[in-house]
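Bench log. Compound arrived from synthesis this morning; before running ITC I wanted a structural hypothesis for how iron/sulfur cluster sits in the protein. Inputs:
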Amino acid sequence: MLDPKLFESDTRADWCPGCGDFGVLAALKDALLKSGKQPHEVVVVSGIGCSSNMPGYIRTYGFHGLHGRPMPVAIGIKCANPRLTVVAAAGDGDEYGIGFNHVVHAARRNDDIKLIVMNNEIYGLTTGQLSPTSRLGQKTKTSPEGSIIYPIKPLPTILGAGGTFVARTFSGDPKHMSLVIQEALKHRGFALIDAISPCVTWHNIYDEVKKLFYKLEDRGYKPDDEQKAYEAMNDPNGIPIGIFYRTEDKASFQERLGEVNGGRWPVDEVKTLPESVCRSLALEFA
Ligand code: SF4
C-alpha cells in the first residue's frame, strides 16, 4: 500500500494562503507516489521565487539554485547520474524570462528533465512586477498604466524548438495535474509542464481560469499531431489544459550520450568519453 506521507517534508510551505503553488506541490507529491518513485530516486531543482522554495517542501533530494538557472543544474545532475529522476520547478519569471534560453536548448537536445513552470503572470516574491507572461495592458508595480509589452508564448516556442512533451495544467485541478505529471515522468526526454498557478496576492486569476479552462481529452484531442498542437495552444476562446504534444520517437540527450560512450552508462564510465565528445559538450554547455 502506498504511504501518502512518503514525500512529506518536515518544513511547512509558507506561501500565502490560497497560493496556486500549494496545488502544484500536492500534485507533484501525488504523481511521484503513484509513479512508484522513492524519495532517494528523485531530485527537485529550483531557481528563485516563491515557487522555487519547492525543494524545501518535498522529501526528495533538492537543489535551490540561482535565478533562472535550474536547468543547467538539473541537466548536470542528470548527466552525472541518469538513474535519478530530475524535476526542475520554478516560476514564469525564472524559466520564461531570466533562464528561458536554457529551456529552449533543453527542449532542442531533449534532455531528460521534467520542468514544471508555475506560471502566475507576475513576479510574486518581489511583490508584483511585470513578468514575461504578463498580459498586454496588465497593471503591475512596473506597469502602473498597463503593460505595453506582448507576453511570451512559451508552449508554441518550446514545441518549435523540438519539444517532445508539451503540456499545460491548472493548480485548481491538482488531480488532473498529477495525471499529467505522471505521464511526464514516463516520458523519454524533456517535458514542459506549464502549470497555471495563480498568485492570489498580486494577480489573482483563479475565477477567470476556472471559467475558461477545459480538458483537451474531454474533446477527444490526441497529442500526436504537431500542427494541431499549435492550433490547440492558440485557442482564443478558452484555456485548454492537458498534453498538447508528445512523441517518444526521439532519444533523450542522456541516452545518446550513453550511445557515444559505447553503451557504457552511467556514472563511472563518463570519464572515458572520447575527447572529441567532451569538447563538443563543453561548447554546448558553456
Ligand atoms: Fe503565492 Fe503570490 Fe503569495 Fe508568492 S506572493 S506565495 S506567488 S500568492
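What the model suggests: The chain is about 35% helix and 15% strand. The longest helix spans residues 21-34.
ITC booked for Thursday regardless.
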